[in-house]
Specification:
EC number: 2.9.1.1
Protein name: L-seryl-tRNA(Sec) selenium transferase
Pathway: Aminoacyl-tRNA biosynthesis; selenocysteinyl-tRNA(Sec) biosynthesis; selenocysteinyl-tRNA(Sec) from L-seryl-tRNA(Sec) (bacterial route): step 1/1
Cofactor: pyridoxal 5'-phosphate
Mean pLDDT: 94
Low-confidence stretches: none
Largest sheet: 7 strands, mixed
CATH architecture of the largest domain: 3-Layer(aba) Sandwich
GO molecular function, one term: L-seryl-tRNA(Sec) selenium transferase activity
Number of domains: 3
Bound molecules: pyridoxal-5'-phosphate
Shape: globular
CATH topology of the largest domain: Aspartate Aminotransferase, domain 2
CATH class of the largest domain: Alpha Beta
CATH superfamily of the largest domain: Type I PLP-dependent aspartate aminotransferase-like (Major domain)
């Protein structure tokens, strides 16, 4: 008797779909993704990698492990608070809830009392104005770069933007603020030198601007570098006086967006201070030291903000409802994770690091955290790290959930500054499992 080809027992797609467990596990998945997962399992059975009986269990396992988005939550054990590659600021519990609430239909542009159209994002605007007193009005756009482009387009057009040579910033991934400004049609007028710029440099430039041309003075905070040594910059208050005498706006790009002076970061310009010093417009990002969602914040005088609101580009850089919800909740809720991590107590960090280190028999070493892409260039945040062999870094990233550490010298350093304490046990389990696997499979030189 000829034996039946086992591949004839591979269940067809409809049969697989008929299993209630498959239906349950697939409830939030689109048809094409579901079909692909089933076809892959069938194909593996046809290639005899799995048996026909394993097709349905494999499909269920795949469905259960499937995430609706390819973005994976990770544990940031780098000690870098605002880590651009890890999505900058993690949202506060209040902001996360606000995002979920705003995900459906929401009264973002409707006055529910009258049923008429209302100002978009009025709540977020109000929260921003409450948090930052001296501003008369505010506008929220997509990100800091969009805010700067809108400011240049609306206030200057094809006129001149006067800026110090010490403030021509590359913000990362090859993006340069001077290029961004020029792309709006404005012409840059660089003044001073890399290390020193004086009020007279700005004054001379202003004399050279033709009477009928629009212009502004732009002061940019160098968020990601420091010029030290023989240096000189012009304070905002002095620039404001000069701008006022020439009846031109002073725009301050503060970068990171601390509302009030931050004692831990004395060089970080605060928005309130810049406005009090006379800036007509202050720009900041929402997802740096403010600890909120990606957004560009524009704060200033009523006239200036009105001009921005009415520029056609304002519509192109309009903020999403999820962002508006998260930003308002960040401003009105408890301290966001960025603030908590920035102010983490080194003694508590030491105790937490020791708990992990002692459980797996490794050392704790002193380790400075960093503010990261968001500001506080070069400012060390004293703390501690669990010191692991360098070879642990890759398997920790491949762990579920991924744990991202810092590699320094020939060590993998695990800093708990940005890890919520409730995740310490998860981190410990990851470290334990990775070290166990490393010991079980010693590398060649160890053999
Ligand atoms: C970060 C930064 C920007 C860009 O802001 P995004 O929100 O990343 O677009 C612009 N200017 C300064 C000074 C910055 O620090």
């Amino acid at each position: 008797m000829v034996e039946e080809d086992p591949r004839r027992r591979i269940p067809g797609t409809d049969t697989v779909l008929g299993h209630p467990e498959v239906r349950d596990a697939a409830h939030s998945l689109g048809e094409p993704v579901l079909q692909r997962i089933i076809h892959q399992a069938q194909s593996r059975a046809r290639s005899r990698i799995i048996s026909p009986e394993q097709v349905v269990p494999e499909v269920i396992a795949q469905l259960e492990g499937h995430r609706p988005s390819s973005l994976r939550p990770v544990i940031n054990a780098t000690g870098v608070v605002i880590h651009t590659n890890l999505g900058r600021a993690p949202l506060s519990p209040a902001a996360r809830q606000a995002v979920v609430d705003a995900a459906g239909y929401v009264d973002v542009e409707m006055d529910l009392r009258t049923g008429r159209r209302s100002q978009r994002g009025a709540g977020a605007r109000r929260a921003l104005l409450n948090a930052c007193g001296p501003a008369e009005d505010a506008l929220i756009v997509n990100n800091g770069a969009a805010a700067l482009a809108l400011a240049a387009a609306a206030l200057v057009g094809t006129g001149r933007v006067i800026i110090s040579r010490g403030e021509l910033v590359e913000i990362g991934a090859g993006f340069r603020l001077p290029d961004l400004i020029e792309s709006t049609g404005a012409e840059l007028m660089e003044v001073g030198t890399t290390n020193r710029t004086h009020l007279q440099d700005y004054a001379s430039a202003l004399e050279a601007v033709p009477q009928d041309e629009r212009a502004c003075i732009l002061k940019v905070h160098p968020s990601n570098y420091r010029i030290a040594g023989f240096t000189s910059t012009v304070p905002t208050a002095e620039l404001a006086g000069l701008a006022q005498r020439h009846r031109l706006p002073l725009v301050v790009d503060a970068g990171s967006g601390v509302l009030d002076p931050e004692p831990a970061l004395p060089e970080e310009p605060d928005l309130r201070g810049a406005l009090s010093d006379g800036a007509d417009l202050v720009i900041a990002s929402g997802d740096k030291l403010l600890g909120g969602p990606q957004a560009g914040l524009l704060l200033g005088s009523t006239d200036t903000i009105t001009e921005l609101k009415h520029h056609p580009l304002a519509r192109a850089v309009r903020t999403d409802k999820l962002t508006l919800a998260a930003l308002e909740a960040t401003l009105t809720g408890g301290p966001p994770p960025v603030t908590t991590s920035l102010h983490a107590d080194p003694e508590v960090l030491l105790l937490r690091a020791r708990r992990v280190a002692e459980a797996v028999g490794v050392d704790v070493v002193a380790h400075d955290g960093r503010v990261g892409g968001g500001g506080g260039a070069e400012v060390p945040l004293p703390g501690w790290a669990v010191r692991l062999p360098e070879s642990a870094a890759e398997p920790l990233r491949s762990h579920d959930p991924p744990v991202v550490t810092r590699t320094s010298g020939s060590w993998c350093l695990l800093d708990l500054r940005c890890v919520p304490e409730s995740d310490d046990e998860t981190v410990l389990q990851a470290v334990r499992s990775v070290l166990h696997d490393l010991h079980a499979a010693p590398s060649e030189e160890q053999v």
